[in-house]
Design a protein that fits this description.
This protein is 13% helix and 32% strand. The protein is built from 1 helix and 9 strands; from the N terminus they run ββαβββββββ. It has a domain of 88 residues: Immunoglobulin-like (Sandwich), CATH 2.60.40.
């Protein structure tokens, strides 16, 4: 991620190159940290599971309420958004938070098997669970091997 200067006998440390390396690293770290809290680098974890009659999406987004989420379908694309939460006073001393409350948006292309009129969602214990039922008659055909 960061360019390291090679010097004779010294590699990847702060010595021999002065304080500019440390200052440059801290500057880039602070920029990355600020972008993370603005939601620019959010990578919210999502698990997708297929069952015979439906698909399930599990969006891991702790520390929010169900009112923070917005789920929409546009042109066979499922869009999941969450508004940024307000930081609590006790959390303002943190230098880094693994699950920041910044807003995010994730998009998923749906196939023609999904019944978009019957999609349901619930938010339990920090996980947004979205159920996408399959349309009847879209099960794969079994081919017998002769």
């Amino acid at each position: 991620m960061y360019h390291t200067h090679e010097m004779r006998g010294q590699r990847g440390n702060w010595h021999g190159c002065g304080q500019w390396k440390k200052a440059a690293f801290m500057h880039r770290f602070q920029q990355h940290q600020a972008a993370w809290h603005r939601g620019e680098h959010q990578n919210i974890n999502v698990n997708i599971r297929e069952q015979p009659d439906y698909y399930e999406l599990f969006v891991f987004a702790p520390g929010r309420t169900k009112d923070a989420f917005h789920i929409a379908i546009t042109d066979d694309v499922l869009v999941i958004k969450a508004n940024a939460g307000t930081p609590e006073a006790a959390e303002q001393w943190l230098h880094f938070e693994h699950n920041p409350k910044a807003g995010f948006e994730r998009r998923f292309q749906l196939n023609k098997k999904v019944d978009t009129d019957a999609i349901t969602a619930r938010y339990v214990d920090g996980v947004l669970e979205i159920t996408l039922p399959k349309l009847p008659g879209t099960e794969p055909q079994r081919v017998n091997i002769a």
